[in-house]
Amino acid sequence: MSAPVARTTRLDAAASVERPLIVANVSRRRFLQGVSALGGLVLAVGYRSAGGAQEAKKYGADGMPNGWVDNPLAFVSVAADGTVTIVCHRSEMGQGVRTGMPMIVADELEADWKRVRIAQAPGDEKKFGNQDTDGSRSTRHFFEPMRRCGAAARTMLEAAAAERWKVPVSEVEAKNHEVVHRPTGRRLGYGSLAKAAAGRPVPARETLRLKDPKQFRYIGKGQLKLVDGRDIVSGKAQYGIDTRLDGMLYAVVARPPVYGGKVASFDATEALKVPGVQKVVQIEDSPPPAHFNPLGGVAVIARNTWAAMQGRQALKITWDDGPNAGYDSVAFKTTLEESAHKPGNDGDFAAAAAGAARRLDAEYYIPHLAHATMEAPAATVRITNGKCEVWGCFQSPQAARDLVAKRLGMSADDVIVHVTLLGGGFGRKSKPDYAIEAAVLSKAVGGKPVKVTWTRDDDLHNGYYHTVSVEHLEAGVDARGKPVAWLHRSVAPTIISTFNPAAKNEAPFELGMGVINVPFAIPNVRIENPESTAHTRIGWFRSVSNIPHAFAVQSFVAELAAAAGRDPKDFLLEVIGPARQVSPEMLSDTWNHGESPERYPVDTGRLRRVAEVAAREAGWGKTLPKGRALGIAAHYSFVSYIAAVVEVAVDDKGMLTIPRVDMAVDCGACVNPDRVRAQMEGACVMGVGIATLGEISFKGGRVEQDNFNSYQVTRMAEAPRDIRVHIIPGDYSKPMGGVGEPGVPPIPPALCNAIFAATGKRIRRLPIRDQLKA
Amino acid sequence: MVPLEINGKRQNVDLPGETPLLWTLRDELGLTGTKFGCGMALCGACTVHLDGQAVRSCVTPISTAANKKVVTIEAIGNAPAGKALQAAWVDLGVPQCGYCQAGQIMSAAALLAHNAKPTDAQIDEAMSGNICRCGTYTRIRAAIKQAVAKRGGTQ
Fold first, then answer.
1. Tens digit of pLDDT for each residue in A130-156?
2. Three-state SS across A392-447?
3. What is the distance between the alpha carbons of residues B51 and B54, in angstroms, rounded to a whole number?
4. Residue A423, min C-alpha distance to chain B (Å)
5. Overall average pLDDT of the A451-469 stretch
6. Cβ–Cβ < 8 Å for A389, A450
7. Chain A partners of B86 at a C-beta cutoff of 8 Å?
8. Yes or no, beta carbons of A235 and B72 under 8 Å apart
9. For an interface test with A, which of B2, B96, B107 has the most A Cβ atoms less than 10 Å from its Cβ?
10. What is the pLDDT at residue A326?
11. CB nearest to B90's CB, from A225, A304, A708
């Protein structure tokens, strides 16, 4: 989930369509300090950022559209009864942001958590700063602004108290929802100071006194319960699909089954006879590129969702499938493989590989995936008196607002987007096509409220899919089996194709997810990225290109270890090399997850450490019964370092179970360690699902999977029995890393490495499904 | 008119008898705690109790539910097992997005109503129809066990 892609205006510029095949062909000797006997020379860098070097580059939250805001008046209010309301401007989809973000404010504010309530911000980035909830960025981009919000509000309460007592402000101190006058012990509750404090000027940023992390009440403690927990377990929590408005109508849409297809003709006669069906409306098709536009099709509007679904079934539609009608996953795999077999121009890799003692190669296939959020997309729109209100489960409420306004020909100022809880997001709900559908339908019924609900087959048939890829790896190894030359040829349709149909190469942000920014101590590295054409909507899916890249790279390292007869963990550490800071530029990574290369170098010491901790905690080297073994993988993504050791048991019939997984995570300092654990646990289960079951395939341009019987996901019995998360302690003065996504990538390779150790069977094609069956 | 008894309240709904209980609860009666996930009894998000048995309301026509006692997530806290499960869910921080959790709790409550001290295998079996895409399974199992322990293994 990527910074440059999340904003539509920048997409065309970001899409580089004329790019050399060779992305990087680099001697990395310069940063292999102490590793290589030869020093000093970068031979070639094949690719430079398309962005102009002249304009000063912005990083982190500064680099995001509408940046950050730390104005306490936008985020904090105190009522006369002392209730503190803190606004959460990011979307809750299970990562715990509605608990974590307000916790930061409350801590600096010295608020009593029991008297804090949370309000969800509508889509309004001018007021709240960037709201795209993706890229594992919320906490790392807003930790500091939210601290300043809390500290500023606290300072205003202290100043109001000092004025009331007519004492110097230096004599007062906010403590647990009260301001105390230290010399006299007098106290004033926040409620009694609320009005006076609100009238005071907001203190200048540089004058704010932030807490010493030792004084944190909530941050880093993990003892607070989820703010929505009680509502969730009692059925009161409101998701996008739960919106109910007076006079609301319910809609489902029949969308073109093939990307780029459209309605040739339709007959609604039978649909209109279904009891409860009120109207059938055609939605204008949007030819590719898909962008965040609705796909078009025919909508049935009814008294309830069931009647709408029955009406849709009774529609007679003839589709014009368009140019992607031939998209076939089996044939496309061959196409990708052919590209992956074509060598690029010769370079250092070839020279080094030619002189190597031995050459090895392997090729890995990872299919399309669907997010399959438990709550499929849903949105409700009402248009009254020139104003449009939208309710829904949006990861990017600002994009929903802008695009609904554009489609309705209204000003964004006249569109309000209310963000509900999201029943899962995983990147799907960053694309608000369903909000536009609801807006078009509300307009078609005179502005009455209309809720559009996606069914599971809609969700699987008309998604923004994770890409499909072939990853070709080659290595030349020395007499001891250590790689001296490394080639990674990655072939996958790019997400940019969803915005620019000419884009055929992976973008810098995709290659920067585990192809070019792999900090191995290998002196000759060559990265190639042959072209590939998208035939469906490609979108970002939790951890994005890291999934195929980490699967290939971490599997291949284990394959090299096996060829060398070495312990996979020791070999992995040797390939990572000694602890050092590697600059992203040196790796030809122009993206670096949108973060400053100075603040966020790639730290091999941290990568080594998570591998070592996961291995130690898992009891690496312990004796296990036949059919049981451990596998390891370590991957750097979203500026966090995660390693996993998976223990598998494979029985005589090839039945796979996963008794235990140990994950070590270094994401810097944590705000809410319990949610860091929860995200790792969830990422582990999702990673297992990707490795064992997940596959979206196409035939005749159509997705072959319809529901959870054909698109299988991990259930309780197949999930790891025991997931142990080991958090590396961090320092609050250092930059934080992401948490929501980076837990996923190491899981599939660690699992497959364990399967190899247990059975001798090497999995190079996901999903595993029945590949282990005897 | 189909006569229904939902969470102890009797009411008649004017819908075709084949209408699924799920959409009747959600769209007609405003009980949105019961969730739609698949429409084919594959994911368990829509689980409710029909005369004490866990059923998937997305494939249960209201004609089948007529004159039976329907209990949904909104009222499961009135039953001791349901209340204990809800408390354990909150205590252990089970939910991530939370969308599937109503169905998970309804399945778990039906299990505990019939088996006060289920084994791991029995938990797996009873919960295998409920999907959680956030992957909260280890905590769901732990919460069921905590609810069992807190109740001392009695019904």
1. 999 999 999 999 999 999 999 999 999
2. ECCCCHHHHHHHHHHHHCCCHHHEEEEECECCCCCCHHHCCHHHHHHHHHHHHCCC
3. 9
4. 5
5. 98
6. no
7. 230, 233-234
8. yes
9. B96
10. 97
11. A225
Nearest to A229 among B27, B42, B95 (CB): B95
- Give pLDDT, residue A13: 34
> ipTM, 2 decimals?
0.98
A225/B91 touch (CB, cutoff 8 Å), yes or no? yes
Q: Whole-prediction pTM value?
A: 0.94
In CATH, the number for domain A343-370+464-759 is 3.30.365.10
Mean pLDDT of A33-52: 31
3-state SS assignment for residue A44:
coil
Do A72-131+137-216 and A343-370+464-759 have matching folds?
Answer: yes
What pLDDT shows up at residue A24? 64
| B2-6 and B47-50 beta bridge pairing | unpaired
Radius of gyration, CA atoms only, chain B: 15
By DSSP bridging, strand A358-366 and strand A469-477 are antiparallel
> How far is residue A754 from each of residues A399, A646, A772, measured CA to CA in Å?
42, 6, 13
Architecture of the domain delimited by B76-150: Orthogonal Bundle (1.10)
Cβ separation B131–A374 shorter than 8 A? yes
Mean of pLDDT over chain A: 93
CATH number of A240-323+371-461: 3.30.365.10
CB-based contacts of A147, cutoff 8 Å, min separation 6: A104, A105, A107, A108, A210, A211
User: Quick one: closest CA in A to B106, which residue?
Assistant: A233
CATH topology of domain A72-131+137-216: Aldehyde Oxidoreductase; domain 4 (3.30.365)
In chain B, which segments carry CATH 3.10.20.30? 2-71
Put simply, the answer to whether A374 touches B72 (Cβ < 8 Å) is: no
Which chain A residues contact residue B132 at CB under 8 A?
Answer: 374, 685
Q: Are A660 and A720 in contact (CB under 8 A)?
A: yes
The CATH homologous superfamily to which domain B2-71 belongs is: Beta-grasp domain (3.10.20.30)
Identity of the residue numbered A692: T
Residue A23's pLDDT band (cuts 50, 70, 90): low
**Long-range residue pairs from A154-157, CB within 8 A, at least 24 positions apart, any chain:** A154/A108, A154/A109, A154/A110, A155/A203, A155/A207, A155/A208, A155/A209, A156/A72, A156/A197, A156/A198, A156/A200, A156/A202, A156/A203, A157/A78, A157/A190, A157/A193, A157/A197
Query: Which of A73, A128, A123 shows the shortest CA–CA distance to A413?
Result: A123
Domain boundaries, chain A: 72-131+137-216, 240-323+371-461, 343-370+464-759
> 3-class SS at A283?
strand
Interface contacts A/B by beta carbons within 8 Å? 186
Positive/negative CA dihedral, B121, B126, B128, B131: negative
Q: For A239, which residue in chain B has the nearest alpha carbon? A: B99
The answer to whether A306 faces chain B, any CB pair under 8 Å, is: yes
Looking at residue A339, what is its pLDDT?
A: 92
pLDDT in the model for residue A662 = 99
Mean pLDDT in residue range B75-103: 98
| CATH 1.10.150.120 residue ranges for chain B | 76-150
Find chain B residues with C-beta within 8 A of A303's C-beta. 27
